[in-house]
Every structure is written in structure tokens, then in C-alpha cells.
Amino acid sequence: MKNRQHWSSRYVFLLAAIGSAVGLGNIWKFPYIVGEHGGGAFILVYLLCITLVGIPVLIAEVFIGKTAQANPVAAFTNLAIQVKASRFWVIFGYLGVLTGFLILSFYSVVAGWSLEYLSVFLQNSLLGFDAKAIEDHFLSVLASAPTLLLWHSIFMVLTVIIVGRGIKSGIEKMVGIAMPLLFIILIILVIYATQLDSFAQTLHYFLDPDFSKLNTQAVLIALGHAFFTLSLGMGAMMIYGSYLQKNTPIVRLSFGIAIMDTLVALLSGLAIFPLIFAHHLEPSSGPSLLFISLPNALLALPFGQFFGIAFFFLLLIAAISSAVSILEPVVAYLVQKTQYSRGKIVSMVGAIIWLIGIGVLLSFNHWSEVKILGNNIFDSLDYLTANILLPLGGLGIALFATWILDKNPKTSIGMVGIPHKIWWLATAFLAPVAIITIAYNGLI
């Protein structure tokens, strides 16, 4: 595109891409699966998976975006024409846009919970609650459609405003402030956790290698997390790559994204689990870890309110930086496809996603009995995107980058020698097999 915006620096791209990769899963899932599946032994397997599968596909997705300088649909279309390949490949561009659209409709509802708990800790309204009362509070939030609607709406408005302001004034400014702040808060929380007697117990639970827990299921979990944690398969990294200058080297940047994403996940575990163990609670995964176990622990510790505010603000930053990257490919496609302004497009798309989100939040209460193929609306969207759409998107990206683009001198990735051979083999053969395995494991 003639007047296409670009990142002001590689550093800003790195912050934006890290923001996309760092989401709720890093904080409420990764620490738990590490502890449950062998600690340091699991981390070694995970690092191998992210090196052989996650990073090669990340390089491929950023490469497609950077080469095409366009949104996912236009990227696949234009590059396929350029190298005289089948127009069939454009399906994966549409797939990425659709996947992001659907994911944000339920991600916004879940992310709204961080706003609820930030509000709760700011008001200190859980003070004096026992463990049962704290659990009941979370269940009451899920049961209250107006409460969920309020926070879902505020979160979507924040996301729409940031994306509506464009690359320079919106996304760049947000990540320039939010991502350094996220790391500062996370480091403060870890320093606080090191002062607790339970920190040594966390190191044992989290980092001691226990190879007896490494079974086939643990490897599949590591493989799945290595793929999903980097925001692959939905066009987010592709659209961010398209805002890079064409001569930008992407391999080191891709490794940097993966390293920082993993670091956030590890630091989250070191920040959270000492609090959990200090209160003699069992570690858990998912929403119960953050919205039941963690408030229980924080309220029983010195300065618990302050660190609760810090933690849930950190959670909000992680959620909104991911949401912005999910919405951007949809908006970028429609801006290029239609004559409407970015402001109108993002408002219309945001409104539609918000409306779908109402169906999602009602599935926790009034519409809990409404089933789609045996699942409620939330679980159905989660299942569809995680087990079908994202793996298909990642598969298409890996195959298109290696078998179509890199085979053509005009669009080759530009790597040479052994590094290029390793990337090509990993992306052309190993990644597709891994992605199909992830999808199959999720489906069954």
C-alpha cells in the first residue's frame, strides 16, 4: 500500500508482538502445567517445542506479513498471484480474520473479569471474607449478567479506542507504556514473593525436574502451549509483521518475542505460587487460580490489597495488549476492502463482537442451558477456535511460507546456509505434523 503506516522502530514492533503473545494463558495456565507435569523437566520439553515448532511458524507468519505489506486476506491473495500459485491460499487469510473475530467475542468477556477484580481490590470490598465467601463472590459475578455486561462493554470500548487511533497514535503508544509497565509490575510482584517463606516451596514445585511426570500427554500439552502462546494462526503476527519495513531482519526479533513470552510465563509462576503456598492452598489452573485462590492468598498477607491491585492491573494490561492484536487484522482487512474510515470500521466491528459477547456472557447464567453440539456458547466458541480454526490457520501459514513463497527467488525468506535449512525443515515438515497432532489431541 502506498501510504501504509510502519512501526517507528523494531523495538516498538517487539513490544507490540510481545503484547500480542503475552495473554491470560501465560498467567493462569502455564505456571500450573509446569508444576503438574515435571517442573524443570517440562520446561526443557516446552523450550524444545517452542524452538522447533513455535518460533519457526512465528517466523513464517511475520515473514508473510512483512513480504506482502498487507492484511492477511490481501497478503495471501497478492503473494499467491505474484508467485503464480493457486488462489486457494486466500482461504487462510479469511480464516485468520474470522478466527480473531470469534476469539475476541469471548476473550473480551473473560478479560472483563480482570476489571471486576481490579475494582474489587481498589475498593477493598473482599476484606473480611473467608475462603467460601471469596469463592461465592466469583460465582456471583458469573451469575450476574449485568455485571459481566458492564466489564465486557468497558473492555471492548478500551480495545476499540486503541485500535481506532491507528498504529502510531493507538497501538504504538499503548504498548510503549503498557509493556514496560507490565514487566515492572511483574518484577515487583516476584521480589515481594521472594520475601515469603513459601518461595523455596515454589522453586521446588516449579523448577525441580521430575522426569517421572513426563508422559505422552505432558509432551502434547507442551506442544500445544508452544503453538498457542505465540498468537499464531489468527493473523495477529502477520498484520504486525506487515507494519515492518521490508528490509527488517525478522529471525532475531522472533526469538526475542518467544524468549520474552516465556519469561513472562515463568515470572508469573514465581509471583503467584508463593502467595498460594503461603496460605496453604492447592495450586490450580484457569479462572479458579486467579479469581478464587489468589484473592484468598492476597487477603491473608501483608500489603495484600496493594499487590492485588498491582496484579489485576497487570492482568488487564496482558489482556488488552492481546485483544488489540486480535482486533487489528479484522479492522485492517475491512479498511483496505471498503471506503469507510478506520474509526467507522472499528466501531462497527467492535459493536458486532460486543453483541456476540453478550451471548457468551449469558452462557454463564441465563443461557447456560443453550447448547451448540453439546456445549454452551462460550465452550463452543473456545472449542471451535482452539481445536479447529487456529491449527488450520497455523498449518496454512507454515505450508504457504515454505512450499510456496520460499521456493520462489522473488519471495524467499532471505536466510542462508544451515539456519535456513533448519527453519525450512522445521516449518515445512515438523510444524505441520505437530499442528495436526495438536488439533487431533484437542478434538478427541
What features would you describe in this structure?
The structure is a single chain. By secondary structure, the protein is an all-alpha fold. It has one domain (about 10-444): Sodium/glucose cotransporter. About 75% of the residues lie in helices and about 0% in strands. The chain has 18 helices and no strands. Helix 4 crosses helix 17 and helix 17 packs antiparallel against helix 18 (about 415-444). The termini are far apart.
Instruction: Write down the secondary-structure element order.
Output: HHHHHHHHHHHHHHHHHH
Mind describing the biggest β-sheet? none
Tell me the CATH architecture.
Answer: Up-down Bundle
- Total individual domains: 1
Residue ranges: pLDDT <50 for 5 or more in a row? none
What's the CATH class label? Answer: Mainly Alpha
Distance between the termini: 43 Å
Helicity range of the residues?
Answer: over 70%
Mean pLDDT over all positions? 93
Percent of residues in β-strands: under 5%
Q: Structural class, please?
A: mainly alpha
Shape: globular
Tally the helices.
18
What does the radius of gyration come to?
A: 21 Å
Annotated CATH topology: Sodium/glucose cotransporter
**Would you report the number of β strands?**
0
SSE map:
Elements: H1 10-21, H2 24-28, H3 30-36, H4 40-68, H5 72-82, H6 90-123, H7 131-143, H8 145-164, H9 166-194, H10 199-207, H11 216-228, H12 236-242, H13 251-278, H14 287-299, H15 304-337, H16 342-362, H17 377-405, H18 417-443
Helix pairs in contact: 1-9, 1-12, 1-13, 1-15, 4-5, 4-11, 4-12, 4-13, 4-17, 4-18, 5-6, 6-8, 6-15, 6-16, 6-17, 7-14, 8-9, 8-15, 8-16, 9-13, 9-15, 10-13, 11-18, 12-15, 13-14, 14-15, 15-16, 17-18
